UniProtKB/TrEMBL annotation:
Source organism (scientific name): Herbaspirillum aquaticum
Protein's UniProt name: Nitrate ABC transporter substrate-binding protein
Signal sequence, start to end: 1-28
Family matches, as Gene3D superfamilies: Periplasmic binding protein-like II
Pfam families cross-referenced by the UniProt entry: NMT1_2
Keywords in alphabetical order: Signal
Amino acid sequence: MTHSIVSPQRRKLLLGAASMLAAGAAPALPALAQGAPVIIGVGADPVFTAFYVAANEKLFAKYGAPNVTVQSYTDGGEALNALVANQVQLGCAGEPTHIVRLSRAELRPLAVTYQSKTYVKLVARKAITSADKIKKFGIVAGSVSEYVTGLTLKTLNIDAAKVEMVRSGPPELPALLARGDIDAYFVWEPWPTLGVQQGGHILMTAGDVGYTSTLWLSANANWLAANKEVAGNILKALAEASEITRKDPPRAAQSVQAITRIPVPQTLNSLKDMEPIVRDFTDTDLKTANAIGEFLLSKQAIKAPVDMSKILQRGFYKG
């Protein structure tokens, strides 16, 4: 078991490889022999705490998967780019991040590894006291940020034609808000907290507009066909790591710091807003996934409808 962080140069190579795969130029990922190395791609933030706990406390080996590496990327999107590019065997990210990549690779979501109604927050300028006063939304396109922003407009009956969407990466959103270039943004931690530190305030959470965010752990289809037992063992390890995280947050935060150098207080603050858990997909998960797919189709982020009942591997995890 090892862990690593991807360099900027490595990120460029992964994005290039993902583009090659989209054009049909990348080779298929070979099935691995029993005991062969397995790499899991995750984002470098506390929402992936259970993965860091499992790696740092050698839980993968405990459950019969000794050669597992947890590799950190900037975010879940880059982790899935690595999965699409066949650089890793498994990757973890949110629902929209998966759905926009399904046309480029055969991804198989195995289980939910996190859920929260409050980790994704709407941060606004001090002068904005209600969502209907927002004229410029900062969004991370093709992510849960864009989906929840759209859900907010729909739920609150705000005319989308009167609202400007400003695309940005998550790290830039707090500065855009502080400068007044945007009125608000809906995104995941730690960017809401950083926005508050720069003069903003929390207006609402994803749960206020009826959304529970989840992360999915997915495998490459070819790899999964030959490695179902290994994938199952990895989920068992993550289940114990999730339990440790829920019961002993300081212990879990130490693992996050050991691997990512994220300070313990930052992780502890983030853990207040989420529930690390490994579970099978539910009817509600399927309904939400299909709704997100329809939203992404309406935004032309995907070119064709996706029937998520044929994608989610319901019943794979039997914890």
